[in-house]
Every structure is written in structure tokens, then in C-alpha cells.
Amino acid sequence: MRVLGVDPGLTRCGVGVVEGVAGRPLTMRGVGVVRTPVDAELGLRLVAIEQGIERWLDEHEPEFVAVERVFSQHNVRTVMGTAQASAVAMLCAARRGIPVALHTPSEVKAAVTGNGRADKAQVGAMVTRLLRLDAPPKPADAADALALAICHIWRAPAQNRIQRAVAQNRLQQAAALHASKLASKGRTA
Amino acid sequence: MRVLGVDPGLTRCGVGVVEGVAGRPLTMRGVGVVRTPVDAELGLRLVAIEQGIERWLDEHEPEFVAVERVFSQHNVRTVMGTAQASAVAMLCAARRGIPVALHTPSEVKAAVTGNGRADKAQVGAMVTRLLRLDAPPKPADAADALALAICHIWRAPAQNRIQRAVAQNRLQQAAALHASKLASKGRTA
């Protein structure tokens, strides 16, 4: 199973690809960060994130995309950007028929370290060990993306198989439903 | 000037196209709602919104897209969906090189009714009058989308001209910058 993990953000969007199955050693296929300039217009930043995610999907052809679930208890301004970046990542995956899974930060920490409130250093150390890397991936967003992918591989493998089997079918149904609704709702003066 | 207004939402995304210039009567070119099923997966809902917005851009070829600026003082769950739907609308516009403007709800209400705290009925009544319609557009999301477009036409026409002139140029710059950054940041195992 090959999974692209995405730690969404407007300024730094962590991405990491992990391959393997639960119960066996995992392999890192790639890790990086999609960055956008802080002073660019929001629409253009979203376009840059889309282009970045598309490249990772093209290059690694993941079977699943795991995205961090966004909460809003954090800083309001940051959360909006995170929600928007995550929307672009989910959109890129879903329109290719790749199933998207959302995992909360505490689910990811618990999966990788055994502690849902582990700090960044601990997550980085476990990612390094589990993927047999020479050093923790930097920045933290990149390590978090790999942790997301590991978490996804380890959680509910049976559910993953079912989800993948129906994802293509659902995509076609949703498109057909949308087309028929749009035809009946839209009117032009 | 032809403007597509978008009142973003996951369940109902209001869209409306208005043509005209400040100081002259305005004309509605189209109004509608892009809907997505509440029980569908989030990724597929975003794909459906993308397809809907793309159709409106194809059909009406707006010179500007005006999107409601999302705040987070409202219901947390709703705000996340609104932020994600708005990201898709901004992405669709920006990757075509169409400038995107964000207006707050109170800016829109003030522009259309003279009162930044006007209620939905008042906004609907003024949209009906300003666009010389037979009845207020329904649902309220559709009327709000038209109000956004009107607001954009009336605010800062000079700024609009400048923004349009540089939008294409910026899009190319952002893509080039992104490509060079990605090349230097990403590494593959």
C-alpha cells in the first residue's frame, strides 16, 4: 500500500510518501514541502499548492491520500489557511478517484508514538526509526506528513481495501448527480 | 465589467453573474446554486463544487470573481466547510488568471443596502430592485452571490482595472517561483 500523507498549510504544506503494510517494515518513497510565498494573493497560493500536490500524485501514484483533519481551536487565521490548503489536497486526490482519509493530530501521534499528546521531537524520532532514516526529516511539517501516511497504513487495513474498491464508483455517481442537479437548479437570464 | 459572485458553502454554494459599471444600471446574467449531497465524502463534495464553478466560468467568462470572505466567529463546523468551498472557488478562478476579490458580509450589505447590518430580506429586496428582477432570487445564497457581484462592481473600479492588468503576469510568476522552489525542496528516496 502506497500512501501520500499531507500536513496542510498555506506557507508550508508537508508531503511524504510511505509504502508498506501493517506488521512489516515500512519504506519512505519521498518527502518534501510545498511552499507558497506569504505575500502572494490567496488564489495564487492555492494554485501553487494544487500544482505541488499534482506533481507528487503524478510522481508517486499513491493508492491513498491521508490528510490531517483540521480543527478550529487553534489560531483563527492559521486555521482558515489550513482548511483551504487541505481542501486543495483533498480535491486533487478525489478528482483522480484516490480515496482520501482524514486523521486527527492525536490519532497520528498515538499511532506513531503510542501517546496522543507526544511532542514534535518524539514524532520525528519515531518516524526516523520506523522508516529507518539517517536523521529526522525537516521541517516538522515533512515529518508530520510521513507520520500521517504511517498512521493510515496502520489503521484499519480492511477498511482501506473496501474504501478503495468503491472510490472510483462513488466519484462517477457524484459527478452524475451533480450534473443532473446543476441542470435543474441553474437558470440564466 | 462582468463579475461572478460566489457565496461559498459545501451544501449550497450561491453563484450569480452581474454585468455593468458603477453609476449605471446593472444587469443579471445568471444566478443559481451549486449543491452537493450532505452525506457524500468531503473530497467528492469538493470535486462537485469544482465542476459546478468551472461550468459557470465556462458559460459566463467573468472578468472578476468576488468571493465572500470567511470569518470564524460562526459555528465551527460550518466555517470549515465554508473555508474549503471558498478555496475551491478561488482556485478555479486563479488558475484561469481571473482576479479574485474577497468582500466581507458587512461590506456587501453596506454596498447594497447602505447598512452593514441589514438582514437577508433587505439584501434580497435591494438585489431585486438594483437588477430589475420580478422577484427576489431564492435561496438566500443565490441572492447573496448577486449582492457580492454588485458590491464588487461598485467598490474601487480603478483598483479593479489595475488588478486585472497584473493578474495574468502574477500567475506566471507564481508558477515559475513554485516550480523552482519545489525542485530545490523535494527529495525522493
UniProtKB/TrEMBL annotation, chains A, B:
Enzyme's top EC category: hydrolase
GO biological process, one term: DNA repair
Cofactor: Mg(2+)
Keyword Membrane in annotation: no
UniProt GO cellular component terms: cytoplasm; Holliday junction resolvase complex
Cofactor binding: number and manner: Binds 2 Mg(2+) ion per subunit.
Source organism, top-level taxon: Bacteria
Reactions listed under catalytic activity: Endonucleolytic cleavage at a junction such as a reciprocal single-stranded crossover between two homologous DNA duplexes (Holliday junction)
Residue sites binding Mg(2+) 1 per the record: D7, D141
This protein's record includes keyword Cytoplasm: yes
Residues given in the record as Mg(2+) 2 binding sites: E68
Catalytic site positions: D7, E68, D141
InterPro entries cross-referenced by the UniProt entry: RNaseH-like_sf, RNaseH_sf, X-over_junc_endoDNase_Mg_BS, X-over_junc_endoDNase_RuvC
Compartments, record wording: Cytoplasm
GO molecular function: crossover junction DNA endonuclease activity; DNA binding; magnesium ion binding
UniProt-listed Enzyme Commission number(s): 3.1.21.10
Keywords: Cytoplasm, DNA damage, DNA recombination, DNA repair, DNA-binding, Endonuclease, Hydrolase, Magnesium, Metal-binding, Nuclease
Assembly mode: Homodimer which binds Holliday junction (HJ) DNA. The HJ becomes 2-fold symmetrical on binding to RuvC with unstacked arms; it has a different conformation from HJ DNA in complex with RuvA. In the full resolvosome a probable DNA-RuvA(4)-RuvB(12)-RuvC(2) complex forms which resolves the HJ.
Function text: The RuvA-RuvB-RuvC complex processes Holliday junction (HJ) DNA during genetic recombination and DNA repair. Endonuclease that resolves HJ intermediates. Cleaves cruciform DNA by making single-stranded nicks across the HJ at symmetrical positions within the homologous arms, yielding a 5'-phosphate and a 3'-hydroxyl group; requires a central core of homology in the junction. The consensus cleavage sequence is 5'-(A/T)TT(C/G)-3'. Cleavage occurs on the 3'-side of the TT dinucleotide at the point of strand exchange.
Similarity field: Belongs to the RuvC family.
Protein name: Crossover junction endodeoxyribonuclease RuvC
Organism, scientific name: Streptomyces albiflavescens
